[in-house]
Amino acid sequence: MSTTTSTADPGLAETTLLRFATAGSVDDGKSTLVGRLLHDSKSVLTDQLEAVERASASRGQDAPDLALLTDGLRAEREQGITIDVAYRYFATPKRRFILADTPGHVQYTRNMVTGASTAELTVILVDARNGVVEQTRRHAAIAALLRVPHVVLAVNKMDLAGYQESIFAGIAEEFTAYATELGVPEVTAIPISALVGDNVVEPSANMDWYGGPTVLEHLETVPVAHDLSHCHARLPVQYVIRPQTAEHPDYRGYAGQIAAGTFHVGEAVTVLPSGRTTTISGIDLLGEPVDAAWTTQSVTLLLTDDIDVSRGDLIVPTKDAPATTQDVEATVCHVADQPLTVGHRVLLKHGTRTVKAVVKDIPSRLTLDDLSLHPHPGQLVANDIGRVKIRTAEPLPVDSYADSRRTGSFILIDPADGTTLTAGMVGESFASPEPVKDETEDDGWDF
Predict the structure, then answer these.
(1) 241: which of 3, 165, 363, 440 is 20 to 30 A away, CA to CA?
(2) DSSP label at residue 400
(3) What are phi and psi of 219, to 5 degrees?
(4) CA distance 414 to 347
(5) Strands 150-156, 121-127: pairing kind
(6) Cβ count near 74 (within 10 Å)
(7) Do β-strands 268-272 and 276-285 pair in parallel, antiparallel, or remain unpaired?
(8) 116 φ/ψ sector (left φ>0, alpha ψ -120 to 50, else beta)
(9) What is this structure's pTM?
(10) Cα(49)–Cα(206) distance, rounded to whole angstroms?
(11) What DSSP character marks residue 234?
(12) pLDDT of 430-443, one tens digit each?
């Protein structure tokens, strides 16, 4: 993930792109907010708007249902809900945006994890009539787990709550206290009516007691300072290029997208998990040699020594190499219908590498109501958040998720059918339990 697109020095690049996600309970108005944002910022094509107007008229509605701008699946339109993540791209004179409109149903929490995993900001909607509910707390917990640096609390349907300041203030206070306990670094509360348009793009004439920014104003001005070019340099190898042609008889390059940091020609690097060291002799970018390359650029590294490097390996600076381990402890969000149990045999995908693994222990499960930890639940079911200990068949070079969202994350996969089971974040989190001593011997390990 990167917020810079310039090809100049990464330290001088201007941040122009914001990735953000919306979340909230069912019928809180997420899709309507997104539709209003697109419509009022003039980011909707004429034919799109005409199609929404026709669809709304056929359903007997007097005004266009702006939620239809994002709810594109037939089942979504029939039920009036969001099922899958809808991505939208739009821009204003001040900033470009990639928006992920995520579902509100508990059964689609996995989609919210997907949409927020690369977000720099999350907009969590709350119905002013209902206040903070369990799904609100779940979405706040996921935003905290995924280390989303900015959270906007959009208190929606203020028109149905009489535009009362006391209602907004009470919800904002309750949510902010909960999010702060989770470790969310910043919460901005905005009272809105997505249906009418209050405080979405234009300031509301019905809430003169509110003097803060509109949703769009905040999106345009929120600082996005997550320049991964200054993080630990990491290149997961995706492909080994060995043309063996008359023009390039000895060419051997290691291609991939830089997950974080910057690489320089002449820099000493280590290939993990083997631990072999060498030096970068060249960097090819778009077919041309360059002296340096940084985050999100897809490059080919040329190494001084002919060493064994293959897909799944990780190239890192020798002076900043992570430790490799076969014991991974992490906070996870379980997204599959089938439970994750102690002893469960899985595949663990980290970067471009996939290895066999076993769930060694589930020390705790998070209770969202009061953030207490239920010790040793034995299993995690769909939408549960908890801690797991995993033993891998091969050593992995993992970073802490707090240091790198790219190389500190992984997914667990069912080896039988390829189903994604769990999304994991390595290291400590707000859900970290006290260390638990295993009472049983690990006689069953076969690696």
Answers:
(1) 3
(2) P
(3) -65, -35
(4) 6
(5) parallel
(6) 8
(7) antiparallel
(8) alpha
(9) 0.76
(10) 27
(11) B
(12) 533 333 334 444 44
